[in-house]
């Protein structure tokens, strides 16, 4: 019998909501649940706190500072936070998944992308600003190609640091803010391959289809197929969409999740899967409401009983701020008492104080929000 979306969700929740390893620090927690998409700088703080309540802002910042967590531009051209070993695996996927795009943009004729990436990593052995990296790209192109068709535009700025081999840190502000970055080469770790990248996805997000792995990693389907064919012992089941879903043989027992969690923007329960397969955790029209087609931003999701059924906002930059929780009509309304623990997790993760909590219902059919009582 084919697996249902509920079956796939329960299996994935066992990986995404594991037991806290206890006393091992935030890097060990991230090692369990996988890299966190971090276009929004606060997302790693919130992702860890939602999964491991009690995780504090100070803990996550300390892990960034000592290098046990790193952040940088990698798979699909996005920003991710990862352990160094995870980041090396993401980098291996990036060099393959982004190669065609880079070659099309740079049109290298006398040298190779690998030559450029090696030169960039040597130049960034110490911290470099985006302007310094862009200047390095310009000089390298003029020297090795006799021309420079990209430096000075937005694409050239990304090509100066986005191949997956550099990590970043904030120059001003802090790790939970959107301050200006500087970059350096990922410190030496064990070499990683595409096999490591695919295994990382299956270990943290499986069961997954070839389409899920390809979307998440930025790799082509043929590349994913080749890697999957070389992995022994994978379990395979037909899914509700007719696709084959594979998982590792040591997968933990499926689990359900009751209660409420406040997830970050771009949470893995949405972004680790090919768009059509995200219905394992949410209704399609709910996902459409959360994801803005205009600017690509995502409302931070509300998770109720293992389903994404709304969103939340804690607006402002003051340390003390209000929290609004919105649930979609015809889903279960969160009970006020169920918000105590996730609010405490949010406060610890961001180092803020929630001044008030407002519960509201949004009827997507009518496009209205009805205030509730906090």
Task: Give a written overview of the molecule.
The chain has helices spanning 5-16, 26-33, 43-51, 57-66, 84-97, 99-106, 113-123, 130-145, 154-159, 194-205, 210-217, 221-229, 268-271, 284-290, 340-350, and strands spanning 36-37, 70-73, 79-82, 166-170, 181-185, 208-209, 235-238, 244-247, 260-262, 301-304, 307-313, 320-328, 353-363, 368-371. The protein has 374 residues and is α+β, with helices and mostly antiparallel strands. The strands form four sheets. It has a six-stranded mixed beta sheet with strand order 9-10-11-12-13-14. A three-stranded antiparallel beta sheet has the order 1-3-2. Helix 7 crosses helix 8. The model has no long low-confidence stretch (mean pLDDT 93). Pfam families: AlkZ-like. It comes from Nocardioides zeicaulis. This is Winged helix DNA-binding domain-containing protein. Keywords: DNA-binding. GO terms for molecular function: DNA binding.
- Spatial order of strands in the largest sheet: 9-10-11-12-13-14
| Topology, number of strands | 14
Q: DSSP strand (E) fraction?
A: 15-25%
Largest sheet, described in full?
6 strands, mixed
Overall average residue pLDDT = 93
Distance between the termini: 44 Å
| Structural class by sheet pairing and helices | alpha+beta
Order of helices and strands: HHEHHEEHHHHHEEHEHHEEEHHEEEHEE
Helix content: 25-40%
Low-confidence runs: none
Assign an overall shape.
globular
Rg of Cα set? 21 Å
Number of helices: 15
Pfam families: AlkZ-like
Protein name: Winged helix DNA-binding domain-containing protein
Keywords: DNA-binding
Organism: Nocardioides zeicaulis
């Amino acid at each position: 019998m084919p697996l249902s979306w509920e079956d796939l969700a329960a299996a994935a929740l066992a990986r995404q909501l594991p037991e806290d390893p206890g006393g091992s620090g935030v890097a060990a927690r991230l090692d369990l649940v996988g890299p966190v998409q971090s276009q929004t700088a606060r997302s790693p703080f919130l992702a860890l706190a939602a999964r491991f309540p009690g995780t504090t802002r100070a803990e996550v910042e300390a892990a960034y500072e000592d290098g046990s967590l790193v952040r940088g531009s990698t798979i699909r051209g996005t920003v991710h936070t990862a352990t160094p070993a995870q980041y090396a695996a993401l980098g291996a996927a990036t060099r393959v998944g982004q190669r065609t795009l880079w070659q099309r943009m740079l049109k290298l004729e006398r040298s190779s992308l690998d030559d450029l990436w090696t030169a960039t990593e040597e130049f960034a052995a110490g911290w470099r600003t985006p302007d310094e990296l862009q200047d390095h790209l310009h000089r390298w192109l003029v020297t090795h190609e006799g021309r420079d068709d990209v430096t000075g535009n937005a694409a050239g700025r990304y090509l100066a640091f986005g191949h997956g081999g550099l990590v970043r840190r904030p120059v001003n502000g802090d790790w939970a803010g959107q301050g200006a970055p500087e970059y350096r080469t990922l410190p030496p770790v064990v070499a990683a391959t595409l096999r490591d990248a695919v295994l990382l996805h299956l270990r943290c997000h499986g069961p997954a289809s070839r389409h899920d792995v390809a979307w998440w990693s930025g790799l082509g389907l043929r590349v994913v197929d080749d890697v999957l064919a070389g992995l022994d012992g994978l379990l395979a089941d037909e899914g509700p969409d007719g696709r084959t879903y594979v998982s590792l043989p040591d997968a933990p027992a499926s689990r359900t999740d009751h209660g409420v969690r406040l997830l970050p923007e771009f949470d893995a329960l949405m972004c680790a899967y090919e768009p059509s397969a995200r219905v394992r955790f949410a209704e399609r029209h709910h996902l459409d409401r959360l994801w803005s087609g205009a600017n690509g931003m995502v409302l931070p999701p509300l998770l109720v009983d293992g389903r994404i059924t709304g969103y939340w906002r804690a607006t402002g930059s003051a340390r003390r701020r209000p929290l609004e929780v919105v649930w979609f009509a015809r889903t279960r309304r969160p009970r006020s008492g169920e918000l105590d623990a996730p609010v405490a997790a949010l406060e610890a993760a961001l180092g803020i104080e929630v001044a008030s909590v407002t519960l509201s219902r949004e009827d997507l059919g009518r496009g209205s929000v009805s205030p509730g009582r906090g």
